[in-house]
Structure formats: structure tokens, C-alpha cells
Amino acid sequence: MKAPKIPIFSIAVFNAIRKTIGTLPPESGGLLAGSRKTGVITFFHFDTRAKCSSVGYSPDTVTLNRLLVKLNAEGMDMMGFVHSHPAGLHYPSGGDKYYCRKIFAANPELPFLIIPIVNSSATGSPFRIRVFVATPTGGEVAIWRVPLNAGKMKKIIPEINITVTATRQLIS
Ligand SMILES: [Zn+2]
Asked: Is the pTM of the predicted complex or chain greater than 0.90?
């Protein structure tokens, strides 16, 4: 099994995750996009309508699908989903794996999904982000823990340049 490329978060995306998911109650989440080729994540969409429960995070697929069309038109790739867990749950859950398996089944060309798990300061513990990459392995899903790599992007890479709908807030 080939180890996945280590993704690179733009500082803007990292800060946006910290300001939203990092301060809100667990099972908040959002979409990550960027370049699948370079592994650079330059776009974050905070999912305000996600169904958040103690069982898990499930994205608002209607809005996300609409967003993906726009991202593709901008030459960006969907890279994965970031969401928070209750205190003490540091790894992707069975439900998270199940969700990845469903996405891989529907998108056979997808080589990986980046699925960081956040500990929100709302849980009383300090903000923390652990980066995981899911890869498809013959109908199953492998989960890799990878280092967090964040950096300032060169100007030629658009960080956040897409607006979606008035009901959605893009955080830059
Ligand atoms: Zn989860």
C-alpha cells in the first residue's frame, strides 16, 4: 500500500478552521479543496448546515455538491472534510470510515480524502488538529496519520476566491 502524500494547509485555511470548528461544539465540519496534484489545501468551506450529532458529522451534501461544481470550474479539487470530535476521540470513527467508503465508491478516480480531526476549545480542552488521510483499498478504506504541514502560500495560488450563496459564509 502506497503511503499518501502529506497535505500542506495554507495558513488562511488553518486559521479559518481554528476560528470556526476550533471554537464550536464537536461534530462541526467543513470541506477542504485545493490541488490533488500538489497536495496543497487552499480552500475551506465551513458547513453551517451539516447534521451534527453525537454519532458523527454528515455534510450538507446538497450545498457541497453545488460548491464542487464551482470549485471544479476554478480548477480546484475536492480534497476532503475536516470535522471535530468530542473530547477524547482523537481518531476517525467507524462512521467517518463508512462515509469515506461511500465517497470512494461513488468516485472511483479519487486517490485520497484528507480527514483531519479537530478538538474544539468548546470541549474545555485546547484546540488541536490531527491530520488523517483516507485511501481506498479494494472496497475498504485505509486511514493514515500524517504530520500537520501548514505554510504561507505564494501569491500565484488562490487562497479563497469563491463565493457560493448568500446563506453561506466563506471564511478567509
Ligand atoms: Zn468523526
From this structure: no
